Amino acid sequence: xxxxxxxxxxxxxxxxxxxxxxxxxxxxxxxxxxxxxxxxxxxxxxxxxxxxxxxxxxxxxxxxxxxxxxxxxxxxxxxxxxxxxxxxxxxxxxxxxxxxxxxxxxxxxxxxxxxxxxxxxxxxxxxxxxxxxxxxxxxxxxxxxxxxxxxxxxxxxxxxxxxxxxxxxxxxxxxxxxxxxxxxxxxxxxxxxxxxxxxxxxxxxxxxxxxxxxxxx
Length: 217
Known about the structure:
Blueprint: E1 11-16, H1 23-36, E2 41-45, H2 51-61, H3 70-94, E3 98-102, H4 105-115, H5 120-131, E4 138-143, H6 146-153, H7 167-183, E5 188-192, H8 197-211
Helix pairs in contact: 1-8, 2-3, 4-5, 4-7
């Protein structure tokens, strides 16, 4: 099941991309665009979105001396997602609100599947178990070559556990994102994040107008 077309019913919009592509800045732009066009918006993020899921986020992102098993990482991500769905996403959609999330299940395929090289079938089994065919209405993918994205990300201060990964990791992550976008063009919109911020946001606004639109007053 895919969330509604947004014209009359609940709408679920996600924003994806590797570190350094400008998700935080553009998430605010997307939220404001939706609000200005009549949407009652719940903004959230993954991993996170609830108190328990935010605690799991801290576990996932904190640099540590202990090696983190890739399967343990994957299961923690889906545990946070289960809590997020139950307590934030599903209740908001049930009341007709528009949910805007910084990352969702595509990130698991990109980071744990591409980056960590876990079997896609393992991630897909967890996806089916938890989501049962539920998908975002629209996924905006901010795309930038990992060389440039990492240079941006590492100017922000102390790196988290994922940001400390090396270039080949992020090349694999980006490759999976692009593969998923190519496989589901009706859901994905790829935005060139190497443009000026004004041009990026112009392209985002164009996609939102075409695929989401204003809510009837």
